Amino acid sequence: MAAEGLWLLLLLSCRGSSTRSAAGPRYSPDWSSLDARPLPGWFDAAKVGIFVHWGVFSVPAWGSEWFWWHWKGELQPDYQRFVRLHFPPGTSYADFAPRFSAVDFEPEKWAQLFQDAGARYVVFTSKHHEGFTNWGSKVSWNWNSVDTGPHRDLVGELGEAVRKRNISFGLYHSLFEWFHPLYLLDKNNSFKSQFFVSEKTLPELSELVLRYKPDLIWSDGDWEAPDTYWNSTSFLAWLYNDSPVKDTVVVNDRWGINCSCRHGGYYNCQDKFEPGSLPDHKWEMCSSVDKRSWGYRSNMQIFEVMNEFTIIQQLVRTISYGGNYLLNVGPTKEGQIAPIFQERLLALGTWLKVNGEAIYESRPWRTQKENRSEETWYTSKGPAVYAIFLVWPKDNVLTLSSPVVSARTQLAKKPRRR
Protein backbone atom coordinates (compact mmCIF):
# COMPACT_ATOMS: atom_id res chain seq x y z
CA MET A 1 0.00 0.00 0.00
CA ALA A 2 1.36 3.44 -0.86
CA ALA A 3 2.16 5.67 2.12
CA GLU A 4 -0.39 8.28 1.06
CA GLY A 5 -3.04 5.55 1.17
CA LEU A 6 -2.75 4.92 4.90
CA TRP A 7 -5.85 5.45 7.02
CA LEU A 8 -6.43 7.56 10.07
CA LEU A 9 -9.27 7.43 12.63
CA LEU A 10 -10.24 10.18 15.05
CA LEU A 11 -12.03 9.35 18.31
CA LEU A 12 -13.01 11.48 21.28
CA SER A 13 -11.84 10.79 24.82
CA CYS A 14 -11.44 12.74 28.02
CA ARG A 15 -7.65 12.85 28.04
CA GLY A 16 -6.19 16.29 28.56
CA SER A 17 -2.90 17.75 27.40
CA SER A 18 -0.11 19.37 29.34
CA THR A 19 2.47 22.00 28.51
CA ARG A 20 5.99 22.55 29.74
CA SER A 21 7.49 25.86 30.62
CA ALA A 22 10.99 26.82 29.52
CA ALA A 23 11.34 29.22 32.46
CA GLY A 24 13.26 28.19 35.53
CA PRO A 25 15.94 29.09 38.08
CA ARG A 26 19.63 29.41 37.39
CA TYR A 27 21.30 26.08 36.91
CA SER A 28 24.50 24.90 38.53
CA PRO A 29 27.11 22.86 36.64
CA ASP A 30 25.99 19.46 37.90
CA TRP A 31 23.63 16.92 36.41
CA SER A 32 21.05 17.01 39.19
CA SER A 33 20.49 20.70 38.47
CA LEU A 34 20.83 20.58 34.68
CA ASP A 35 18.54 17.57 34.32
CA ALA A 36 15.83 19.43 36.23
CA ARG A 37 15.54 22.07 33.49
CA PRO A 38 12.17 21.75 31.72
CA LEU A 39 12.52 20.88 28.05
CA PRO A 40 11.43 23.85 25.90
CA GLY A 41 7.97 23.01 24.59
CA TRP A 42 8.68 23.63 20.91
CA PHE A 43 10.69 20.42 20.62
CA ASP A 44 7.99 18.04 21.83
CA ALA A 45 5.44 19.82 19.64
CA ALA A 46 7.61 19.68 16.49
CA LYS A 47 7.77 15.85 16.25
CA VAL A 48 9.39 15.70 12.78
CA GLY A 49 12.89 16.78 11.81
CA ILE A 50 15.36 16.38 8.94
CA PHE A 51 19.00 15.45 9.65
CA VAL A 52 21.73 16.44 7.15
CA HIS A 53 25.21 14.85 7.14
CA TRP A 54 27.52 16.85 4.88
CA GLY A 55 31.26 17.36 4.91
CA VAL A 56 34.59 16.41 3.34
CA PHE A 57 33.52 12.75 3.60
CA SER A 58 31.09 13.59 0.78
CA VAL A 59 34.07 13.78 -1.61
CA PRO A 60 35.19 10.12 -1.57
CA ALA A 61 31.47 9.38 -1.02
CA TRP A 62 32.04 5.70 -0.51
CA GLY A 63 31.35 3.31 2.35
CA SER A 64 30.17 5.80 4.94
CA GLU A 65 30.85 9.20 6.51
CA TRP A 66 33.48 7.41 8.62
CA PHE A 67 35.63 7.09 5.49
CA TRP A 68 38.77 8.67 6.97
CA TRP A 69 38.70 6.44 10.05
CA HIS A 70 38.13 3.25 8.07
CA TRP A 71 40.90 4.25 5.66
CA LYS A 72 43.61 5.55 8.01
CA GLY A 73 42.47 4.54 11.49
CA GLU A 74 41.36 0.95 11.04
CA LEU A 75 43.36 0.50 7.79
CA GLN A 76 40.52 -1.42 6.16
CA PRO A 77 41.82 -2.92 2.88
CA ASP A 78 38.68 -2.13 0.84
CA TYR A 79 38.95 1.59 1.70
CA GLN A 80 42.66 1.61 0.87
CA ARG A 81 41.92 -0.12 -2.42
CA PHE A 82 39.22 2.43 -3.25
CA VAL A 83 41.64 5.34 -2.81
CA ARG A 84 44.31 3.65 -4.94
CA LEU A 85 41.82 3.14 -7.76
CA HIS A 86 40.19 6.57 -7.69
CA PHE A 87 42.83 9.08 -6.56
CA PRO A 88 46.48 9.87 -7.40
CA PRO A 89 49.30 8.23 -5.42
CA GLY A 90 50.07 9.95 -2.15
CA THR A 91 46.55 11.35 -1.74
CA SER A 92 45.80 12.45 1.81
CA TYR A 93 42.43 13.15 3.37
CA ALA A 94 43.24 16.86 3.35
CA ASP A 95 43.42 16.68 -0.45
CA PHE A 96 39.70 15.96 -0.54
CA ALA A 97 38.77 19.33 0.99
CA PRO A 98 39.26 21.48 -2.16
CA ARG A 99 36.94 19.06 -4.00
CA PHE A 100 34.18 19.69 -1.48
CA SER A 101 32.84 22.37 -3.78
CA ALA A 102 29.16 22.83 -2.79
CA VAL A 103 28.87 24.39 -6.24
CA ASP A 104 25.23 23.30 -6.54
CA PHE A 105 24.25 24.10 -2.96
CA GLU A 106 21.11 26.23 -3.00
CA PRO A 107 19.97 26.65 0.60
CA GLU A 108 16.57 28.03 -0.39
CA LYS A 109 15.80 24.87 -2.37
CA TRP A 110 16.96 22.67 0.49
CA ALA A 111 14.80 24.58 2.93
CA GLN A 112 11.77 24.33 0.64
CA LEU A 113 12.29 20.58 0.30
CA PHE A 114 12.48 20.19 4.06
CA GLN A 115 9.32 22.24 4.48
CA ASP A 116 7.55 20.14 1.84
CA ALA A 117 8.69 17.05 3.76
CA GLY A 118 6.76 18.28 6.78
CA ALA A 119 9.83 19.04 8.90
CA ARG A 120 9.39 21.33 11.88
CA TYR A 121 13.12 21.34 12.63
CA VAL A 122 16.39 20.69 10.78
CA VAL A 123 19.66 19.44 12.27
CA PHE A 124 22.70 20.27 10.12
CA THR A 125 26.28 19.01 10.47
CA SER A 126 28.43 21.88 11.71
CA LYS A 127 31.39 19.50 12.26
CA HIS A 128 31.76 15.74 12.04
CA HIS A 129 34.54 13.59 13.54
CA GLU A 130 36.87 14.63 10.70
CA GLY A 131 37.13 18.09 12.28
CA PHE A 132 36.18 20.10 9.17
CA THR A 133 33.81 22.91 10.17
CA ASN A 134 31.02 24.01 7.85
CA TRP A 135 31.51 27.59 8.95
CA GLY A 136 34.61 29.78 9.22
CA SER A 137 35.62 28.73 12.70
CA LYS A 138 38.45 30.72 14.26
CA VAL A 139 39.85 27.55 15.83
CA SER A 140 39.76 25.42 12.67
CA TRP A 141 42.37 27.22 10.60
CA ASN A 142 42.24 26.35 6.90
CA TRP A 143 40.11 23.30 7.75
CA ASN A 144 36.73 24.92 7.29
CA SER A 145 34.25 25.70 4.52
CA VAL A 146 35.19 29.39 4.30
CA ASP A 147 38.95 28.99 3.94
CA THR A 148 38.84 26.02 1.55
CA GLY A 149 36.43 23.98 -0.53
CA PRO A 150 33.13 25.86 -0.89
CA HIS A 151 34.51 29.17 0.45
CA ARG A 152 31.04 29.67 1.93
CA ASP A 153 29.44 29.77 5.36
CA LEU A 154 27.28 26.69 4.92
CA VAL A 155 25.87 26.80 8.45
CA GLY A 156 24.86 30.44 8.17
CA GLU A 157 23.33 30.13 4.71
CA LEU A 158 21.18 27.10 5.50
CA GLY A 159 20.15 28.47 8.89
CA GLU A 160 18.87 31.69 7.32
CA ALA A 161 16.92 29.83 4.62
CA VAL A 162 15.36 27.38 7.07
CA ARG A 163 14.29 30.02 9.56
CA LYS A 164 12.55 32.04 6.83
CA ARG A 165 10.08 29.17 6.72
CA ASN A 166 9.56 29.08 10.51
CA ILE A 167 11.49 25.83 10.80
CA SER A 168 13.70 25.50 13.88
CA PHE A 169 17.42 25.16 13.14
CA GLY A 170 19.69 22.80 15.04
CA LEU A 171 23.37 21.98 14.74
CA TYR A 172 25.11 18.63 14.98
CA HIS A 173 28.59 18.98 16.51
CA SER A 174 31.18 16.30 17.26
CA LEU A 175 33.00 16.81 20.52
CA PHE A 176 36.03 14.84 19.37
CA GLU A 177 38.13 14.53 16.20
CA TRP A 178 39.77 11.29 15.12
CA PHE A 179 43.23 12.59 14.33
CA HIS A 180 43.58 16.04 15.95
CA PRO A 181 47.01 16.08 17.68
CA LEU A 182 45.68 17.78 20.82
CA TYR A 183 42.93 15.20 21.17
CA LEU A 184 45.42 12.38 20.65
CA LEU A 185 47.66 13.97 23.29
CA ASP A 186 44.80 14.11 25.80
CA LYS A 187 43.84 10.55 24.95
CA ASN A 188 47.42 9.41 25.49
CA ASN A 189 47.27 11.16 28.88
CA SER A 190 44.19 9.06 29.77
CA PHE A 191 42.15 12.27 29.47
CA LYS A 192 43.85 13.77 32.52
CA SER A 193 44.78 16.80 30.37
CA GLN A 194 42.24 18.94 28.48
CA PHE A 195 44.24 20.71 25.79
CA PHE A 196 41.80 19.75 23.04
CA VAL A 197 38.73 20.75 25.03
CA SER A 198 40.04 24.19 25.98
CA GLU A 199 41.58 25.00 22.60
CA LYS A 200 39.05 23.42 20.23
CA THR A 201 35.81 21.92 21.52
CA LEU A 202 34.55 24.63 23.86
CA PRO A 203 35.62 27.58 21.65
CA GLU A 204 33.77 25.97 18.73
CA LEU A 205 30.61 25.41 20.73
CA SER A 206 30.70 29.00 21.98
CA GLU A 207 31.16 30.26 18.40
CA LEU A 208 28.18 28.28 17.19
CA VAL A 209 25.91 29.51 19.96
CA LEU A 210 26.93 33.16 19.80
CA ARG A 211 27.03 33.41 16.02
CA TYR A 212 24.09 31.23 14.92
CA LYS A 213 21.90 30.98 18.03
CA PRO A 214 20.83 27.38 17.34
CA ASP A 215 17.51 26.07 18.58
CA LEU A 216 19.09 22.67 19.18
CA ILE A 217 22.59 21.29 19.78
CA TRP A 218 22.93 17.68 18.68
CA SER A 219 26.13 16.61 20.44
CA ASP A 220 28.07 13.53 19.36
CA GLY A 221 31.56 11.99 19.52
CA ASP A 222 31.50 11.75 23.31
CA TRP A 223 32.01 8.04 23.81
CA GLU A 224 35.74 7.85 24.52
CA ALA A 225 35.87 10.18 27.53
CA PRO A 226 33.72 11.12 30.55
CA ASP A 227 31.72 14.33 30.72
CA THR A 228 34.27 15.76 33.18
CA TYR A 229 36.86 15.72 30.40
CA TRP A 230 34.53 17.61 28.05
CA ASN A 231 33.52 20.12 30.76
CA SER A 232 29.99 19.35 29.65
CA THR A 233 28.17 20.51 32.78
CA SER A 234 29.99 23.85 32.79
CA PHE A 235 29.14 24.46 29.15
CA LEU A 236 25.49 23.50 29.64
CA ALA A 237 25.18 25.71 32.73
CA TRP A 238 26.38 28.67 30.64
CA LEU A 239 24.06 27.63 27.80
CA TYR A 240 21.02 27.46 30.09
CA ASN A 241 21.84 30.52 32.23
CA ASP A 242 23.61 33.16 30.16
CA SER A 243 23.68 32.31 26.45
CA PRO A 244 21.46 34.11 23.92
CA VAL A 245 19.39 30.92 23.54
CA LYS A 246 19.12 30.08 27.24
CA ASP A 247 15.31 29.87 27.27
CA THR A 248 14.77 28.06 23.98
CA VAL A 249 17.72 25.78 23.24
CA VAL A 250 17.35 22.01 23.36
CA VAL A 251 20.22 19.53 23.74
CA ASN A 252 20.51 15.76 23.54
CA ASP A 253 22.27 13.29 25.84
CA ARG A 254 25.70 12.76 24.22
CA TRP A 255 27.95 14.70 26.59
CA GLY A 256 30.25 11.96 27.89
CA ILE A 257 30.71 8.23 28.05
CA ASN A 258 28.47 8.11 31.13
CA CYS A 259 25.62 10.29 29.82
CA SER A 260 23.73 8.43 27.09
CA CYS A 261 20.12 7.75 28.11
CA ARG A 262 20.87 9.29 31.53
CA HIS A 263 21.62 13.01 31.25
CA GLY A 264 20.69 15.83 28.91
CA GLY A 265 17.62 17.61 27.59
CA TYR A 266 16.25 14.66 25.62
CA TYR A 267 17.61 11.19 24.93
CA ASN A 268 19.02 9.68 21.72
CA CYS A 269 20.47 6.71 23.63
CA GLN A 270 21.98 5.27 20.46
CA ASP A 271 21.59 5.61 16.71
CA LYS A 272 18.21 4.36 15.49
CA PHE A 273 17.08 3.77 19.07
CA GLU A 274 13.51 2.48 19.41
CA PRO A 275 12.10 1.60 22.85
CA GLY A 276 9.71 -1.28 23.27
CA SER A 277 7.48 0.67 25.64
CA LEU A 278 6.67 4.27 26.55
CA PRO A 279 9.81 5.91 28.07
CA ASP A 280 9.51 8.26 31.03
CA HIS A 281 11.79 10.85 29.36
CA LYS A 282 11.51 12.73 26.08
CA TRP A 283 13.48 10.99 23.33
CA GLU A 284 14.28 11.09 19.64
CA MET A 285 14.67 8.37 17.04
CA CYS A 286 17.21 9.29 14.35
CA SER A 287 17.14 7.23 11.18
CA SER A 288 18.61 7.52 7.69
CA VAL A 289 17.02 7.07 4.28
CA ASP A 290 20.20 5.22 3.31
CA LYS A 291 20.07 2.35 5.78
CA ARG A 292 23.86 1.83 5.74
CA SER A 293 25.22 5.37 5.92
CA TRP A 294 24.48 8.88 7.13
CA GLY A 295 26.64 10.58 4.50
CA TYR A 296 26.16 10.28 0.75
CA ARG A 297 27.86 7.30 -0.88
CA SER A 298 28.15 6.44 -4.53
CA ASN A 299 28.00 2.69 -3.87
CA MET A 300 24.51 2.82 -2.36
CA GLN A 301 22.14 0.17 -3.75
CA ILE A 302 18.39 0.63 -4.17
CA PHE A 303 17.57 -2.17 -1.71
CA GLU A 304 19.58 -0.24 0.92
CA VAL A 305 17.20 2.73 0.68
CA MET A 306 14.22 2.80 3.04
CA ASN A 307 10.90 2.70 1.23
CA GLU A 308 8.17 5.16 2.12
CA PHE A 309 6.09 2.61 4.02
CA THR A 310 9.02 1.86 6.35
CA ILE A 311 9.59 5.58 6.92
CA ILE A 312 5.93 6.14 7.82
CA GLN A 313 5.99 3.04 10.01
CA GLN A 314 9.03 4.31 11.93
CA LEU A 315 7.46 7.74 12.28
CA VAL A 316 4.15 6.44 13.66
CA ARG A 317 5.78 4.07 16.15
CA THR A 318 8.09 6.85 17.34
CA ILE A 319 5.34 9.41 17.85
CA SER A 320 3.09 6.90 19.59
CA TYR A 321 5.86 6.24 22.09
CA GLY A 322 6.31 9.98 22.70
CA GLY A 323 9.45 10.47 20.62
CA ASN A 324 10.51 12.79 17.83
CA TYR A 325 11.48 11.42 14.42
CA LEU A 326 14.67 12.76 12.81
CA LEU A 327 15.17 11.47 9.26
CA ASN A 328 18.60 11.84 7.65
CA VAL A 329 19.80 12.49 4.10
CA GLY A 330 23.38 12.95 2.90
CA PRO A 331 24.00 15.43 0.03
CA THR A 332 26.69 15.05 -2.62
CA LYS A 333 29.93 17.05 -2.49
CA GLU A 334 28.35 19.52 -4.95
CA GLY A 335 25.35 20.07 -2.71
CA GLN A 336 22.76 17.97 -4.51
CA ILE A 337 20.23 15.92 -2.57
CA ALA A 338 19.83 12.74 -4.60
CA PRO A 339 16.44 12.34 -6.36
CA ILE A 340 15.70 9.11 -4.48
CA PHE A 341 16.16 10.97 -1.18
CA GLN A 342 13.98 13.84 -2.38
CA GLU A 343 11.27 11.37 -3.39
CA ARG A 344 11.27 9.79 0.07
CA LEU A 345 11.12 13.16 1.82
CA LEU A 346 8.26 14.36 -0.38
CA ALA A 347 6.35 11.11 0.24
CA LEU A 348 6.68 11.74 3.96
CA GLY A 349 5.40 15.29 3.45
CA THR A 350 2.44 14.07 1.40
CA TRP A 351 1.42 11.69 4.18
CA LEU A 352 1.81 14.38 6.83
CA LYS A 353 -0.39 16.81 4.89
CA VAL A 354 -3.24 14.32 5.32
CA ASN A 355 -2.40 12.83 8.71
CA GLY A 356 -0.29 15.46 10.44
CA GLU A 357 -3.15 16.29 12.79
CA ALA A 358 -2.38 13.03 14.61
CA ILE A 359 1.36 13.76 14.70
CA TYR A 360 2.21 17.40 15.39
CA GLU A 361 1.62 18.60 18.98
CA SER A 362 0.30 15.15 19.85
CA ARG A 363 0.88 13.24 23.08
CA PRO A 364 1.10 9.54 23.88
CA TRP A 365 -2.26 8.01 24.79
CA ARG A 366 -2.80 5.62 27.71
CA THR A 367 -2.25 2.77 25.21
CA GLN A 368 0.32 3.14 22.48
CA LYS A 369 -0.50 0.10 20.33
CA GLU A 370 -3.74 -1.73 19.61
CA ASN A 371 -3.68 -5.19 21.19
CA ARG A 372 -5.40 -6.81 18.23
CA SER A 373 -3.13 -5.36 15.57
CA GLU A 374 0.61 -4.95 15.17
CA GLU A 375 0.07 -2.06 12.76
CA THR A 376 -2.41 0.15 14.62
CA TRP A 377 -1.00 2.86 16.86
CA TYR A 378 -2.49 5.60 19.03
CA THR A 379 -1.72 9.26 19.70
CA SER A 380 -3.81 11.91 21.41
CA LYS A 381 -4.37 15.66 21.52
CA GLY A 382 -6.61 17.12 24.19
CA PRO A 383 -9.84 15.08 24.18
CA ALA A 384 -9.09 13.54 20.77
CA VAL A 385 -7.58 10.09 20.34
CA TYR A 386 -6.13 9.08 16.99
CA ALA A 387 -5.87 5.49 15.79
CA ILE A 388 -3.37 5.27 12.96
CA PHE A 389 -3.50 2.00 11.10
CA LEU A 390 -0.84 1.19 8.59
CA VAL A 391 -2.46 -1.85 6.99
CA TRP A 392 -6.15 -2.04 6.15
CA PRO A 393 -7.77 -5.30 7.36
CA LYS A 394 -8.37 -7.89 4.63
CA ASP A 395 -12.00 -8.35 5.72
CA ASN A 396 -12.54 -4.55 5.75
CA VAL A 397 -13.40 -4.65 9.44
CA LEU A 398 -11.13 -2.73 11.80
CA THR A 399 -11.57 -3.78 15.42
CA LEU A 400 -10.29 -1.48 18.16
CA SER A 401 -10.34 -2.96 21.63
CA SER A 402 -8.50 -0.19 23.49
CA PRO A 403 -10.94 2.75 23.24
CA VAL A 404 -13.89 2.64 25.66
CA VAL A 405 -16.79 4.40 24.01
CA SER A 406 -19.73 6.17 25.62
CA ALA A 407 -22.79 8.09 24.51
CA ARG A 408 -20.57 11.19 24.19
CA THR A 409 -18.05 9.54 21.90
CA GLN A 410 -17.91 10.92 18.37
CA LEU A 411 -16.21 9.14 15.50
CA ALA A 412 -14.59 10.93 12.61
CA LYS A 413 -12.87 9.20 9.71
CA LYS A 414 -10.26 10.70 7.46
CA PRO A 415 -10.84 9.63 3.86
CA ARG A 416 -8.18 7.44 2.33
CA ARG A 417 -6.02 9.34 -0.10
CA ARG A 418 -4.97 7.43 -3.17
TrEMBL record:
<keyword id="KW-0326">Glycosidase</keyword>
<dbReference type="Pfam" id="PF16757">
    <property type="entry name" value="Fucosidase_C"/>
</dbReference>
<comment type="subunit">
    <text>Homotetramer.</text>
</comment>
<dbReference type="InterPro" id="IPR031919">
    <property type="entry name" value="Fucosidase_C"/>
</dbReference>
<keyword id="KW-0325">Glycoprotein</keyword>
<dbReference type="InterPro" id="IPR057739">
    <property type="entry name" value="Glyco_hydro_29_N"/>
</dbReference>
<dbReference type="InterPro" id="IPR000933">
    <property type="entry name" value="Glyco_hydro_29"/>
</dbReference>
<keyword id="KW-0732">Signal</keyword>
<comment type="similarity">
    <text>Belongs to the glycosyl hydrolase 29 family.</text>
</comment>
<protein>
    <recommendedName>
        <fullName>Alpha-L-fucosidase</fullName>
        <ecNumber>3.2.1.51</ecNumber>
    </recommendedName>
</protein>
<dbReference type="InterPro" id="IPR017853">
    <property type="entry name" value="GH"/>
</dbReference>
<dbReference type="InterPro" id="IPR016286">
    <property type="entry name" value="FUC_metazoa-typ"/>
</dbReference>
<dbReference type="Pfam" id="PF01120">
    <property type="entry name" value="Alpha_L_fucos"/>
</dbReference>
<feature type="domain" description="Glycoside hydrolase family 29 N-terminal">
    <location>
        <begin position="21"/>
        <end position="357"/>
    </location>
</feature>
<feature type="signal peptide">
    <location>
        <begin position="1"/>
        <end position="19"/>
    </location>
</feature>
<dbReference type="InterPro" id="IPR018526">
    <property type="entry name" value="Glyco_hydro_29_CS"/>
</dbReference>
<comment type="function">
    <text>Alpha-L-fucosidase is responsible for hydrolyzing the alpha-1,6-linked fucose joined to the reducing-end N-acetylglucosamine of the carbohydrate moieties of glycoproteins.</text>
</comment>
<feature type="domain" description="Alpha-L-fucosidase C-terminal">
    <location>
        <begin position="368"/>
        <end position="409"/>
    </location>
</feature>
<keyword id="KW-0378">Hydrolase</keyword>
